[in-house]
């Protein structure tokens, strides 16, 4: 039962109202309606039991009043069976409970007075003076057994009392003292039973009020919880689902994917030249543009039974179930066309178009790969970048062998050659915190890259190209140099970490470059941690293994990143002593299932037995943090404790904290 605000206010007022005041008519009507079925049963079974008892009492009539026995028994049978049939008829015809109560009250009054009038003419007045006391059964029945409204109980029981008291005082042939005592007894039974009836009625009413109050509080709690979930899962600007919600929706799609023949498509979309749009028209116009695009995406997603969300900034993501590549191509095309149909003017583009468009990349689940959103997004991201290098305002379906993607990689490699000199690369820092106290222990440095037009290029796109072309060596050393400089100048905690690839570790002079950077900045080696991603078996790369040993000898910390996602994790743990092992975020997010939780616990237990310090990535909620605290995890990292931000924002936050 949904409870309105008016009902909630009435309940609050009714609970604080003195008990002697009348009940709220609306709430009392709700009580009667709530107990309608129960009251029907009470009346039907109560009348059946009363009629049976009423007729059985005819045996006393036979012994006590033999002169009127036939008439009295006939009266009992006639009245009892008549009202029993009448009550059943009213109940079966679906009349209101109030009508049923009227009939039951009439049955009590008629049964009592009908017998009394027949019995008063007996010659056995002494026996009658003893037996008449059983008239109180009718009074008690009217007041206590049938849950009548108080006025109906009072009216019916008072009628019976007046009849019996009057007959006792003015008709019964007995001593006056006996008649007075009997009349007083009837009156006393009336008062006492009415009081008990009133108390029981109030208790039922108060119990109902408190049950309503509890239901209201539960309903409010559920509504607030739903609002919090909605807020947590909704992008505040566009109203679309955010990353958190998209991740959960993907998990739901994966469960369905196991039972049907459809594939899961992931479409990543980026607004073309959006930075220029913002710079020319202002951020408010940019927000309005994103809201319009979100509305178009939501409508297009609904028509295709898909799920649209905002991935961040001017990037949007779509999850859809499709029959294959051709179907995915058609759905992606619909999203691109939906944006063009809006005809939002764009005043600053390099091409001949003068409206806002999007570039899109899409990827599809395949039988030969694991079903991971992270992998599909990386593939869609690469396809998206291929669309950008193909001239924008188009889309690309991911294909590892596609020519346009090779061309995009070639163009990106040219960009990477000038990234450092042109100032296209930057660094952001994400805090690493103590799982229990929340204290910042250090920071991880992360590289960011922008195109010449200012648009962001995802690390999942440019890092693989940089590794393939060898550009990662220059970019990696630039990142480490910048991180060490910021560490010394601004203090980033006990340690600052940077990711290094096998390509960097295989470079013969890599340890010497690290030594030179540390010496130039005057930084203690143990304050630098190099994170090696579990992507290939470096134990098979002799030079990479030597570099790790030399860096450890220098005092630099060596961390294992994304543990559990590669194929060489256990081999690495046997071969190298890592200062910290970072468990990949996917294992924490899988803890919603019993199997996922058990797997994470087993991983933590294994790493502890091997003597490694454990850090868990991807902590986004307080519940996840509490879980990790319970498991005894030392360090955590994720959006809950801090997002990656430039050093300027860290400095500003410190100034505000001091102020």
TrEMBL record:
Keywords: Membrane, Transmembrane, Transmembrane helix. PROSITE patterns: EAL, GGDEF. The keyword Ribosomal protein does not apply. CDD domains: EAL, GGDEF. The keyword Nuclease does not apply. Residues 409-658 form the EAL domain. The chain crosses the membrane at residues 42-60, 72-90, 102-121, 127-146, 151-170, 176-196. It holds the Pfam family EAL. This is EAL domain-containing protein. It comes from the Bacteria. SMART domains: EAL (SM00052), GGDEF (SM00267). Residues 262-400 form the GGDEF domain. InterPro entries: Cyclic-di-GMP_PDE-like, EAL_dom, EAL_sf, GGDEF_dom, Nucleotide_cyclase, Rev_trsase/Diguanyl_cyclase.
């Amino acid at each position: 039962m949904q409870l309105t605000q008016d009902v909630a206010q009435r309940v609050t007022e009714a609970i604080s109202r003195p008990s002697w005041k009348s009940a709220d008519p609306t709430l009392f009507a709700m009580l009667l309606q709530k107990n309608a079925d129960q009251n029907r049963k009470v009346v039907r079974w109560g009348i059946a039991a009363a009629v049976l008892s009423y007729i059985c009492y005819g045996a006393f009539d036979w012994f006590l009043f033999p002169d009127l026995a036939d008439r009295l028994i006939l009266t009992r049978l006639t009245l009892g069976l008549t009202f029993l049939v009448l009550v059943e008829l009213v109940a079966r015809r679906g009349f209101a409970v109030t009508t049923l109560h009227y009939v039951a009250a009439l049955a009590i009054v008629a049964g009592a007075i009908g017998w009394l009038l027949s019995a008063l003419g007996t010659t056995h007045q002494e026996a009658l003076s003893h037996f008449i006391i059983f008239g109180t059964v009718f009074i008690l029945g009217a007041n206590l057994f049938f849950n009548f409204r108080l006025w109906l109980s009072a009216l019916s029981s008072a009628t019976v009392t007046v009849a019996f008291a009057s007959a006792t005082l003015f008709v019964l042939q007995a001593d006056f003292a006996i008649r007075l005592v009997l009349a007083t007894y009837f009156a006393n039974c009336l008062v006492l039973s009415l009081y008990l009836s009133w108390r029981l009625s109030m208790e039922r009413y108060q119990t109902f009020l408190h049950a309503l109050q509890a239901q209201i509080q539960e309903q409010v709690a559920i509504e607030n919880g739903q609002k919090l979930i909605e807020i947590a899962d909704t992008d505040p600007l566009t109203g679309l689902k955010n990353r958190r919600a998209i991740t959960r929706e993907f998990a739901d799609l994966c469960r369905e994917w196991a039972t049907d023949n459809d594939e899961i498509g992931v479409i990543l979309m980026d607004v073309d030249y959006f930075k220029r749009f913002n710079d020319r028209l202002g951020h408010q116009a940019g927000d309005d543009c994103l809201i319009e695009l979100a509305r178009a995406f939501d409508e297009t997603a609904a028509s295709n039974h898909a799920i649209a969300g905002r991935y961040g900034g001017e990037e949007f993501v779509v999850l859809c179930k499709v029959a294959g590549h051709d179907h995915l191509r058609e759905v992606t095309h619909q999203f691109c066309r939906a944006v063009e149909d809006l005809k939002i003017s764009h005043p600053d583009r390099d091409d001949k178009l003068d409206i806002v468009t999007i570039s899109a990349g899409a990827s599809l689940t395949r039988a030969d790969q694991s079903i991971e959103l992270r992998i599909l997004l990386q593939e869609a991201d690469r396809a998206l970048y291929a669309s950008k290098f193909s001239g924008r305002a188009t889309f690309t379906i991911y294909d590892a062998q596609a020519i346009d993607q090779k061309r995009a990689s070639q163009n990106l490699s040219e960009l990477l050659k000038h990234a450092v000199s042109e100032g296209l690369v930057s660094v952001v820092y994400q805090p690493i915190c103590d799982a229990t106290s929340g204290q910042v222990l250090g920071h991880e440095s992360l590289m960011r890259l922008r195109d010449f037009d200012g648009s962001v290029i995802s690390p999942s796109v440019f890092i693989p190209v940089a590794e393939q072309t060898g550009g990662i060596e220059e970019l990696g050393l630039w990142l480490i140099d910048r991180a060490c400089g910021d560490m010394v100048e601004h203090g980033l905690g006990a340690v600052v970490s940077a990711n290094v690839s096998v390509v960097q570790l295989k470079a013969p002079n890599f340890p010497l470059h690290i030594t030179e950077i540390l010496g130039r900045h005057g930084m203690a080696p143990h304050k630098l941690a190099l994170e090696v991603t579990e992507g290939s078996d470096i134990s098979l790369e002799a030079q990479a293994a030597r570099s790790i040993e030399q860096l450890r000898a220098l005092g630099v910390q060596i961390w294992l990143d994304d543990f559990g996602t590669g194929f060489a994790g256990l081999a690495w743990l046997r071969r190298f002593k890592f200062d910290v092992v970072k468990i990949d975020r996917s294992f924490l997010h899988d803890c919603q299932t019993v199997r996922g939780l058990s797997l994470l616990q087993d991983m933590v237990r294994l790493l502890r037995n091997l003597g490694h310090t454990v850090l868990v990535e991807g902590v986004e909620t307080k519940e996840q943090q509490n879980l990790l605290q319970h498991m005894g995890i030392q360090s955590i990292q994720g959006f809950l404790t801090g997002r990656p931000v430039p050093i300027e924002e860290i400095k500003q936050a410190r100034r505000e904290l001091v102020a």
